[in-house]
Amino acid sequence: MTDKIVLGTVQLGTEYGVANKTGMPSNDEAFRILSSAYDAGVRELDTASAYGQSEYVIGKFIGSAQKHFDAVSKTRLFGDGGIGGFRAGFEKTLGALGQDSLYGYLVHDFTDFRKYGTGLWDECLRLKKEGLVKNAGFSVYHPGELDYLFEKKVTPDIVQLPFNVFDQRFKPRFAGLKERGIKIYARSAFLQGLFFLTPEESGKKCRNAPGRIAELKKVSDEHGMPLAALCELFALLEEGIDKVVIGVDSVRQLEENLSFLKYAEKGRRLRGALGEMAVEDEDVILPYRWSK
To answer: I need a labelling partner for 88 at 20 to 30 A (CA). Which of 61, 208, 228, 231 fits?
Structure first.
């Protein structure tokens, strides 16, 4: 299953995750993470211009280590500035990564697509036509955003979406996406680290979270399976998903996440029970609604 893992690199360029207590790794540690991931068989990276120094760290590593990854990056956040800087932003990403082309390039903020419409998508398709991007797509947050794409007659190559034990909103859409030939990339398998907080910590983020997390931890304890393994495999074993983006902030954490693959058979047996733990409360499953 290692070939289904995409290394998320937001942690390499910013201090990311509610359970992150170590901050952003040093350049040396970031290089060790990338090298270890490559040696373990991971060949794809997820990054974005909004991820601080992430693209530059990756570019420096690839240039010095001569270990090639397929990179999926994302458009800069346009806000009210218009999409006139689309091409310059893409070229900056290419330069930072030290690449001639990208495996994937996604519209990062769906509100940009709502604001600038198919003009933004046309820019992405132009990159494909020129051979600068192999796959163009979207990072989405809500199932309704898929409906909006299809209403606009837009069929991306890739959609990246949140999927975890609590947040299963997109699962009913998987079959339809596959019928359209769209590759599904899942992120947020650990719900940005919320699963790993103490009851007191998670309660400060969301008052309805501790009870839900306690139920999940009970399953973990009863079956002798690490909580992180339970969450990671729930995404990796989902047949409708092509790739799962998993971020780490240390080599130790990377090695630990890769070691969880040994629980695959047990994870398969628990899928039914975990599937019944979906949470509809958006205050729990949507990080932007948590207390800051």
So the answer is: 61
Q: Which residues pair with 48 in a beta bridge?
A: none
pLDDT digits (tens, 9 = 90+) for 106-150: 999 999 999 998 899 999 999 999 999 999 999 999 999 999 999
The token duo for 46 is: 């997820």
Q: Tokens at residue 281, please? A: 């409360």
What is the reported pLDDT for 23?
A: 62
Q: How is residue 183 written in tokens?
A: 């590759």
Non-local CB neighbours of 158 within 8 Å, separated by 6+ positions:
72, 104, 106, 135, 136, 137, 138, 182, 183, 184, 185
Domain of 208, CATH number, reads 3.20.20.100
Q: Are 46 and 6 in contact (CB under 8 A)?
A: yes
DSSP collapsed to 3 states, 169-220 = CCHHHHHHHHHCCCEEEEECCCHHHHHHCCHHHHHHHCCCHHHHHHHHHHHH
End-to-end CA distance of the chain: 35
Domain of 242, in residue numbers: 2-289
d(CA 52, CA 50): 6
Could you give the CA distance from residue 199 to residue 266 in angstroms, rounded to a whole number? Answer: 26
51, 9 Cβ separation under 8 angstroms: yes
For 114-142, letters b (16+ CB in 10 Å) and e give eebeeebbebbeebeeeebbbbbbbbbbe
pLDDT, tens only, 233-267: 999 999 999 999 999 999 999 999 999 999 999 99
- Assign 3-class secondary structure to 214-239: HHHHHHHHHCCCCHHHHHHHHHHCCC
Antiparallel, parallel or unpaired: β 102-107 and 158-162? unpaired
Confidence of residue 20 (pLDDT cuts 50, 70, 90): very low
> How many structural domains does the chain have?
1
Tokens of 145: 């955003």
Beta-ladder partners of 6: 245
